[in-house]
Specification:
The protein has about 450 residues and is mainly α. It is built from 21 helices and no strands.
């Protein structure tokens, strides 16, 4: 046996280099594999795929032809969108959208004062980018700007009038008083330094300027800058009062959505904590509020806020007609948000509570540092789903006479200047694109946040 192996050894071949990695077969990876796994994996999927392809093949060419190929992109009046006037088939009347685009954005807001709305839009965009951009510097300053300075500035700019300017003067005076108080308090260590010696203050003086410019000083100086610019603007240009009845379009839609989103999350967290509280009164009140609000439609809440709320306060203190639906939408969304947050709290393991208590943390410290960050991360899809539903539900404020974006489109449909057979389809298509882009943007950002926060949870 040994001799046979020895005789075969000179003819044996042993590969010393590994073979190059070969691509996976087309039936396992690649576009064909994806199509086979997701579209043709079973008889039911095959039938649904073929049905979908049939619907797309029969409807998509007509939609493309109507909204793009035969569409009218420019014109001064309805004559540009009538087939007998132009001598060809006419599709979507985008010239109507271009002509009424300003009205879709501002509603009946005075043309000479629309620069105020533009400033608010610019500040809102800055605040959103500042908060949502993960690499943005000075996050605390951005939070202060978005939740404190932006609402005050928007109130002063959009409403105007003597009352708004007086309120702005009070805010500027308060900021100046805080700045003066901070300067006085910051001089105390320097005066004491003559008695305690220079060595004790050496660490503070060696800090760079950008590090010394932080904390309350940063917030106060930023508030002074914003309020100072607004005061100069109000004194030089003037801010005449614009009643909320003239507001409309995208301005009102974004305003209602922003107020509802900003206030519904903290109120929902408080209601969720109240519902899980061990104090019977707080728990009972939270349960009654949540179940009552969730048990009625939003239209009912808006009617109550618009009709019944003024009956409970004196006439001189009656809320503004736009403030009433703002309060109703925020409270309605808070009730749904409370149940979403409560689901996240119930998903937390008991060991997280025990670990936090073993560290000596109190209830609020435990919730703020340990429980709520994890619970909110779990329910990000539910939170964003509530936000998207809230954004779409802003169209219901038209029931109480508020001219939101969709209501402005409906108002222009009866305008004889653009009364054509295709105007209605064009206006509603434009509204659908607007709402889709806004909701799709929120959805995509929430997916990115989920992936970023779940990076440490992958195994």
């Amino acid at each position: 046996m040994t001799d046979a192996v020895t005789e075969m050894a000179p003819y044996a071949f042993v590969r010393k280099e590994p073979l190059e990695q070969q691509p996976a077969p087309l039936s396992v990876a690649g576009p064909l594999a994806w199509v086979r796994a997701h579209l043709f994996s079973s008889p039911l999927n095959i039938a649904l795929t073929l049905l979908s392809l049939y619907v797309v093949a029969t409807s998509l060419p007509e939609l493309i032809r109507f909204y793009f190929v035969d569409a009218v992109w420019s014109g001064a009046n309805r004559a540009a969108c009538l087939a007998d006037k132009v001598g060809r088939p006419v599709g979507a009347c985008w010239a109507y959208v271009a002509d009424r685009f300003q009205y879709f954005i501002y509603g009946s807001y005075p043309i000479s004062q629309r620069w105020r709305v533009n400033i608010v839009f610019a500040m809102f965009a800055l605040g959103v980018v500042w908060l949502l951009w993960t690499r943005a510097p000075k996050k605390k300053l951005g939070i202060f700007f978005f939740f404190v300075l932006l609402p005050i500035s928007a109130y002063v700019l959009l409403l105007g009038g003597a009352g708004a300017e007086r309120f702005l003067g009070i805010c500027l005076t308060l900021a100046l008083a805080l700045a003066a108080l901070y300067v006085v308090l910051s001089l105390v260590p320097q005066l004491v330094g003559f008695h305690i010696g220079e060595a004790a203050l050496g660490v503070v003086r060696q800090l760079p300027a950008w590090k010394r410019f932080s904390g309350p000083k940063q917030l106060i100086l930023f508030a002074l800058l914003v309020f100072g610019l607004l005061s100069m603007l109000a004194s030089s240009v003037g801010l005449p009062r614009v009643d909320t009845g003239l507001w409309g379009g995208m301005t009102v839609t974004f305003l209602i959505a922003a107020v509802g989103i900003v206030f519904s999350l903290p109120l929902g967290v408080l209601l969720a904590l109240g519902r899980r509280s061990k104090l019977p009164i707080i728990q009972l009140l939270s349960v009654i509020f949540i179940e009552f609000v969730r048990g009625v439609p939003l239209i009912t809440v808006l009617f109550m806020a618009n009709t019944m709320l003024p009956l409970f306060v004196p006439q001189e203190y009656s809320p503004d007609r736009l403030l009433r639906p703002l309060v109703g939408v925020a409270l309605f969304a808070a009730a749904y948000m409370a149940e979403v947050v409560r689901g996240g709290l119930q998903a937390m393991p008991k060991g997280q509570y025990e670990g936090a208590m073993s560290l000596g943390l109190g209830y609020w410290s435990m919730m703020r540092l340990i429980i709520l960050p994890q619970a909110l991360r779990i329910v990000i899809p539910g939170i964003v789903n509530t936000f998207i539903g809230l954004f779409k539900d802003t169209t219901l404020v038209t029931i109480v006479g508020i001219f939101d974006f969709l209501r402005t489109i409906e108002a222009t449909l009866v305008d004889p200047t653009w009364a054509t057979p295709t105007t209605r389809a064009t206006g509603y298509a434009f509204a659908a694109v607007f709402y889709f882009l806004c909701c799709w943007g929120m959805s995509r950002y929430s997916i990115a946040v989920e992936k970023r926060l779940a990076a440490g949870q992958k195994r």
